[in-house]
């Protein structure tokens, strides 16, 4: 059975392996053992409530209980942009009109903004290729919302997600090559690494302070604006299914879209029910939609996709599923 659980320092080798598999542009999973070790320590502190809620960064692992192998990772940041500004580009229309010539022009432009300050962020969703079927991605993605919904006071009213931008068949970012890279004068890989390995001062120092008129940019760069990476299309579809919508913001490096949702309106959170659990037989029906069941604590958080039976105000689960969730009869679990 696949289960989502909190990550800890012992997961470093698996997390580093996932980082190498994730490829170029997956900023939140740098191929850097020291950075990822620090990330796991931060996650352990976050789940132990040893940090202010806004500074917490929760990392979740997707584990196959039959083999003990780690098949995926996801994360939630309690708050973004509170110490270091969280920069994005907003696509804006700038209108110009001349009464002398009777001419009006509407120009599309990129403007540097930091509008996401204080929002909580879901991200770092990555699965091993062999697990990108049979609901594993849905389990990992929705487990984040189950954790947020069960501990709503630890998270902001607005939840955001940034998706990796478009890379061409040569694994190059047209947006970086045509727009962003002209300001930073660094290889994409170096700038990408510096986001997580430094305090980000170089962004503040070098990012453009004036609107960038898109008519002056290469067509390939313009076409990449707001376009999601081919490997992120399924992630975008799942976010939209939960109620996330495009915000008009894009990533300043690769042009990928930012989507947002109101925390309590996210579908998994909105539809969740809290019920006492009982052990019993549950028979899966053909074509039955599996339910997300979570043990809603923080340090003891667990989530699985499973057939369920609800009767007499209680959630019925097989004993083996209870064991995977770390729950006992009478415990309150959430189901959605």
UniProtKB/TrEMBL annotation:
<dbReference type="Pfam" id="PF04958">
    <property type="entry name" value="AstA"/>
</dbReference>
<keyword id="KW-0808">Transferase</keyword>
<dbReference type="InterPro" id="IPR007041">
    <property type="entry name" value="Arg_succinylTrfase_AstA/AruG"/>
</dbReference>
<protein>
    <submittedName>
        <fullName>Arginine N-succinyltransferase</fullName>
    </submittedName>
</protein>
<keyword id="KW-0012">Acyltransferase</keyword>
<dbReference type="InterPro" id="IPR016181">
    <property type="entry name" value="Acyl_CoA_acyltransferase"/>
</dbReference>
<keyword id="KW-0056">Arginine metabolism</keyword>
